[in-house]
Design a protein that fits this description.
Helices cover 27% and strands 19% of the residues. The chain is an alpha/beta fold. The chain is globular. The termini are far apart.
Length: 291
């Protein structure tokens, strides 16, 4: 990583009518939730940050008896900042595509270094496995999507069976994982993000690229061609680890996008920026066609 992993800072002077000084808030405020079933601040664990929001597609007479697949979205922020409230646009975008979507917050470093935030992701998946049906979701068809530090969390919690097993999540309920601009393989000791990891920790024992189980589900790795925050080589090294373990993967470099615009383009309003939303939805749809 060449800089800190920021949470959607100034979401660029985009074509959305960005007013005032908080473009993320403006994007979220212009994201209509009409027709969706939104439930906020559901506790999935004991900490004050162990909360998630659920965005569920509307139920119709035709769909009321069928449970929809579930996506857990994990935010970035260098493991030290950010939260679910900044990603309304992500929850809305995925819910409009037919997924019951949970957007989570998690415990933050430095008070809670690795692996606390990974354990939070596993606990959120356990909660969804057990409770998604109350919100129209199928807790046996789980997907995980993360951006930046959240992509690290997503790939680590899914590809390393330790965390799912410890949380009581059946590994076969998590059908795929999507990492967007994730730092999967780097020496955190050389960067400010070292505060998110244990003192004296060794990257060789911590990086997701070192923990890939041979029976991990398909991975989608999305890399921003113009990323100057997370070195795109992280994606290359994670791809090599998946290849070595024999895990199915799709590796896509998205042209013209940087570390921020790659997640901004997950919004339905910002697809003109690049192909993030299409790549994610095409990948998830392909997994849904699997038995």
């Amino acid at each position: 990583m060449k800089r800190r992993l920021f949470v959607l800072p100034a979401l660029l002077a985009l074509g959305v009518a960005l007013t005032a000084c908080n473009p993320v808030a403006t994007l979220n405020n212009t994201t209509s939730l009409s027709g969706l079933n939104v439930t906020r601040n559901l506790p999935y664990g004991p900490d004050v940050r162990n909360l998630l929001d659920i965005y569920a597609p509307p139920q119709t007479a035709e769909t009321s008896s069928s449970l929809k697949p579930v996506v857990l979205f994990i935010h970035g922020g260098s493991w030290t900042s950010g939260g679910k409230d900044e990603y309304v646009f992500a929850g809305e975008s995925l819910a409009r595509a037919g997924y019951v979507t949970a957007v989570m917050s998690y415990r933050l470093a430095p008070q809670h270094p690795y692996p606390d935030y990974i354990q939070d992701a596993a606990q959120a998946l356990k909660w969804l496995q057990d409770n998604a049906a109350k919100y129209g979701g199928n807790g046996q068809r789980l997907y995980v999507v993360g951006h930046s530090a959240g992509a690290f969390n997503a790939v680590e919690v899914v590809d390393n069976a330790r965390w799912l097993t410890e949380a009581g999540v059946k590994t076969n309920t998590v059908r795929a994982v999507v990492g967007i601009a994730g730092p999967y393989d780097y020496d955190f000791r050389k960067f400010p993000s070292k505060d998110a990891f244990p003192a004296g920790g060794d990257p060789a024992n911590i990086m997701p690229s070192r923990h890939v189980r041979s029976d991990a589900p398909p991975n989608l790795l999305l890399v921003a061609a113009n990323d100057t925050t997370v070195d795109p080589d992280n994606g290359e090294r994670m791809k090599a680890a998946l290849q070595a373990a024999g895990v199915p993967y799709t590796y896509t470099v998205l042209p013209g996008l940087n570390h921020i615009t790659i997640v901004g383009a997950l919004s339905r309003h910002l697809t003109f920026l690049g192909g993030t939303r299409k790549a994610v939805l095409d990948f998830l749809a392909a997994q849904e066609r699997r038995p």
